[in-house]
Amino acid sequence: MDEWDTVWSADEVTQSEGAPLAGLDADVIPVVPMRNVVLFPDIVSPITLGRPKSLEALEFCLRHRTPFAVVLQKDATNDDPDITDLCSVGTSAMVMQHTRSEDGQVHLVCQGKQRLQILEAVPGHPFLAARVRPIEEDGMRSEEHTSELQSRE
User: Fold this and answer.
1) 140-153 b/e (C-beta count within 10 Å ≥ 16 → b)
2) C-alpha span between 117 and 127 (Å, rounded)
3) pLDDT tens for residues 26-49?
4) More confident residue, 23 or 92
5) How confident is the model at residue 119 (pLDDT cuts 50, 70, 90)?
6) What residues have CB less than 8 Å from 13, skipping those under 6 apart?
7) Cβ neighbours for 35, distance < 8 A, ≥ 6 positions apart
8) Could you tell me the pTM of the whole model?
9) Which residues does 143 contact at the CB level (< 8 Å), separation at least 6?
């Protein structure tokens, strides 16, 4: 039985955030383009992967127990997007569970960890990879800022 035939959970696989990986610098992360999914930090969400490069990125992340970047595509009809075809901000994600279906797609349950700015593509891998910079969150918003945002609705 290979690793794709089982369901893995976060309890069984400990992923290490921020550790340099074989072949990747510490500020480089595998990127998974999404047609219609935006993942936010601290949110747990199901994601389905099926494109070869995305599956390669997932396999790399599972093997090295590392996060990957979930980034929205600008054009959902593009079947083979490059880094330039993606939004400039994404979210790092950790795999909590995954399983492969009979049609070859992989169904994941992921948790968003931190927003990332995509700086540049890093070639030389069988998946999309990018140099990224973490985006520090401001924490709690002020009441004034919250009121301003609500008034825009």
Assistant:
1) eeeeeeeeeeeeee
2) 18
3) 999 999 999 999 999 999 999 999
4) 92
5) very high
6) 62, 65, 95
7) 73, 76
8) 0.77
9) none
**Cα 33 from chain centre:** 8
Compute the chain's Rg from CA coordinates: 16
How does strand 28-34 pair with strand 68-72? parallel
Please, which pLDDT band fits residue 140 given cuts at 50, 70 and 90?
low
DSSP code per residue over the chain: --GGGS-EETTT----TT--BTTB-TTEEEEEEESS----TT-EEEEEE-SHHHHHHHHHHHHHT--EEEEEBS-TT-SS--GGGB-SEEEEEEEEEEEE-TTS-EEEEEEEEEEEEEEEE--SSSSEEEEEEEPPP--SPPHHHHHHHHHT-
Choose the weakest-confidence range: 3-7, 31-35, 40-44, 88-92: 3-7
Q: Give the pair of three-digit tokens for residue 91.
A: 């979210």
